[in-house]
């Protein structure tokens, strides 16, 4: 795993391989996503939520590019320990808030709102298709915010009322969601 851009560009980290339940986004797909995001937002001004945070890669990219407010959520203790270690190594404890909790419990309990939300759930998660609805039902996204969900071709959100764009990188698909425009 490496950081693609910003002040930590090129830094590499190796998450433990044994019993690791995450599926880190490939560098190619992550680079493509951040090229898109670079044209959509000012990284320094966004409040970010990283759901199913795994290795923390998504949050590190944001902080490397100037973001000051990232919340990482994952329930897996080894992943949380790894992210705490990397956070200390990079000296970004002030920018990265780590929450060890089930993502669905977090969504249900938080009152915070975010400019950008990323969810990289396990592809086999039986409730993956409910995540976009939960994000919007709970009002977690700010009015001009963007929600991106990583998934595989077995999931199709083309009929979702908040779907904005879809980008396909082989077996990795990013679905982009926004608040639906209000009708005049």
Instruction: Estimate the helix proportion, in percent.
Output: 25-40%
| CATH architecture designation of the domain at 53-177 | 3-Layer(aba) Sandwich
Overall radius of gyration: 15 Å
In spatial order, strands of the major sheet run 3-2-1-4-5-7-6
Q: Overview of this structure, please?
A:
Helices cover 26% and strands 25% of the residues. With 184 residues, it is of the alpha/beta class. It has a domain at 53-177: Vaccinia Virus protein VP39 (Rossmann fold, 3-Layer(aba) Sandwich). It has a 7-stranded mixed beta sheet, with helices on both faces. The longest helix is centred in the middle third of the chain and has 14 residues, at 77-90.
Summarize the structure in short.
The protein contains five helices and seven strands.
